[in-house]
Amino acid sequence: MLKQHQAEQFSDLFNRALANIGTVIKGKQDQIGMTLVSVFAQGHVLLEDRPGTGKTSLAKAIAQTIGGEWSRIQFTPDLLPSDVTGGLFYNQATGDFALRKGPIFANIVLADEINRASPKAQSALLEVMEERQVTVDKETTSLEPPFVVIATQNPGEREGTYRLPEAQLDRFLMRLTFGSLDEASEVEVLRGNAAGISPEGLPERVTLEEVRWMSQVAEAVHLEDPVMEYIVRIAAATRAMPELDVGASTRGAVSLMKASRSLAAARGRTFVTPDDVKALAGHVLAHRMIRTPEAELHGTLTEDLVDRALDTVPAPRPVRAE
Q1: Which of 74, 81, 192, 203 has the most CB atoms within 10 Å of its CB?
Q2: Is pTM beyond 0.70 here?
């Protein structure tokens, strides 16, 4: 059973990482926090917004903050699966074939502009994002935790891009958007840039061993049956919506549970509340839902449909005191 002091230690480490990243990523505390929640829940993140909003900088800042090995894959139309996973090469010294590891072998992998690669190249991520292992020519290699893919895409661009398939989207624990900065935050960005402050220069604030421990703590956060049933009912409510061809799946409900546990620990609690679920539902479920052609034509947003589900599904009464 998770102890209160463990949850408080998790929260302290979480806030330490949050503050460190906040020195270079200005005005985006919510997005930074949600990305860290996903990292400590061992989940991947899709950052979606216009160019120049800080998506790539956030991924770099997280990698620097946890002191892990990181790599960047620039997704382009000519990218091959072997450019992601690596491949076998003949070692003349030993007379055997050996695996040359690709950039996917890292703790934090930045998949930049993921929707610019062909479906064949994107398929190289399916196994490793789900099972944390890479198979090359029948040889399977497991990846050491933590392993998180932080992907970016610019949704406004259509030429030269490929729409991410449902199976690929389902691999991401969360989808986050950045939006524009307010004037004060934008001034802070310019001031930091002029002073030479960059994600690459951030100090390590959380060790890899601490990240692994935090993931274990998040998994131990308690979920009362009424809260678990609440998550299931939210997912089920989306499946009954006429605007959707596909609602949130059971995997989506499991993902919402995992993220809620991580958020509860970040807030210094040993148990999940309905408010944790509400705070995360849009980020975790919206990208897994497929609109009907009519709903898409009318500009209906899946985030709005998640909000409707939250409005129609009654939240359970708190079973514990905050």
Answers
A1: 81
A2: yes
